[in-house]
């Protein structure tokens, strides 16, 4: 990368490739559980077919205003910014609780909730602030972050389907990078914890001294529990997004041990993960 700015286009391309590769890999390993005895040699895997289906899958996942030529004809426009997300947020905020409490035996053996619902409310608040710039969402952000802290759910290095914390910290830090004091004045302690925890997350995944993850012998990020590919994929995604915005702001991550992590270094770590996931 040298001194040049990271090209947004190459970043987007890399993300798409990561997502497709993860998708191919997950569907491949899911398929293997059922067809283990008929397992094909790797050279017989039809990558073109797998990629075609993956792209179709992602087409089906799109939200917003869909183009006329989209192939999932049963899907309609969704999440168009018409206030419907505000409605969903207000509903969740009014009737607070964990979804697993209303569907206990159906969801919990599979998708148990470990991190409460406060992180989802904070995550929704942070996104709605970004979309509307209405400071009322910052009050919800402040409140739910405090509740997370007092419930001891705080886990700066987690980001996935259950825990959104690293995402909340990085999203808010990115907003702080562009808005400065017009945002920080609304946040508890001027929002310093968001930057502190966003940087602490990056410092905790450095291959030379990882503290929130482990690296496999081949160099892939690993965290305990099943379906590991979600971990390197989600961690790579937010690390890359953070790197792009730090680069724009000409800033770097400072670790408590004195290490400086440049955006270029962050991209190199993400690249190593994408390369391994693509194998
Ligand atoms: C890393 O691996 C060690 C040894 O297996 C284990 O004790 C530790 O909990 C792991 N750390 C993380 C963050 O997964």
TrEMBL record:
GO molecular function: cellulase activity
E.C. numbers: 3.2.1.4
Homology family: Belongs to the glycosyl hydrolase 9 (cellulase E) family.
Broad enzyme group: hydrolase
Recorded superkingdom: Eukaryota
UniProt name for this protein: cellulase
Domain Glycoside hydrolase family: 47-84, 88-276
Catalytic activity line of the entry: Endohydrolysis of (1->4)-beta-D-glucosidic linkages in cellulose, lichenin and cereal beta-D-glucans
GO biological-process terms attached to the record: cellulose catabolic process
Signal peptide from the UniProt entry: 1-29
Organism of derivation: Papaver atlanticum
UniProtKB keywords: Carbohydrate metabolism, Cellulose degradation, Glycosidase, Hydrolase, Polysaccharide degradation, Signal
Residues that span the membrane, as ranges: none
Keyword Hydrolase: yes
């Amino acid at each position: 990368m040298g001194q040049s700015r990271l090209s947004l286009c190459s970043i987007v391309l890399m993300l798409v490739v990561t997502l497709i590769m993860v998708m191919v890999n997950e569907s491949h390993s899911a398929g293997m559980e059922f067809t283990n005895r008929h397992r094909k040699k790797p050279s017989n895997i039809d990558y073109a077919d797998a990629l075609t289906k993956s792209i179709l899958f992602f087409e089906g996942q799109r939200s917003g205003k869909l183009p006329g030529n989209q192939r999932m004809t049963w899907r309609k426009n969704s999440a168009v910014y018409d206030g419907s997300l505000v409605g969903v947020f207000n509903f969740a905020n009014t009737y607070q609780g964990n979804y697993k409490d209303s569907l206990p035996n159906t969801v919990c053996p599979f998708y148990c909730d470990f991190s409460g619902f406060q992180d989802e409310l904070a995550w929704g608040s942070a996104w709605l602030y970004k979309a509307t710039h209405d400071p009322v969402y910052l009050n919800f952000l402040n409140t739910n972050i405090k509740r997370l802290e007092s419930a001891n759910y705080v886990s700066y290095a987690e980001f996935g389907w259950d825990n959104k914390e690293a995402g909340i910290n990085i999203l808010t830090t990115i907003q702080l990078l562009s808005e400065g004091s017009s945002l920080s004045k609304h946040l508890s302690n001027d929002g310093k914890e968001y930057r502190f925890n966003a940087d602490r997350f990056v410092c905790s995944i450095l291959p030379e001294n990882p503290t929130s993850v482990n690296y496999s012998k081949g160099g892939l990020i690993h965290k305990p529990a099943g379906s590991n590919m979600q971990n390197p994929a989600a961690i790579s995604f937010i690390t890359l997004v953070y790197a792009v915005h730090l680069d724009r702001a000409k800033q770097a991550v400072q670790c408590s041990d004195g290490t400086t992590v440049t955006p270029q270094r962050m991209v190199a770590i993400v690249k190593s993960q994408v390369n391994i996931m693509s194998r």
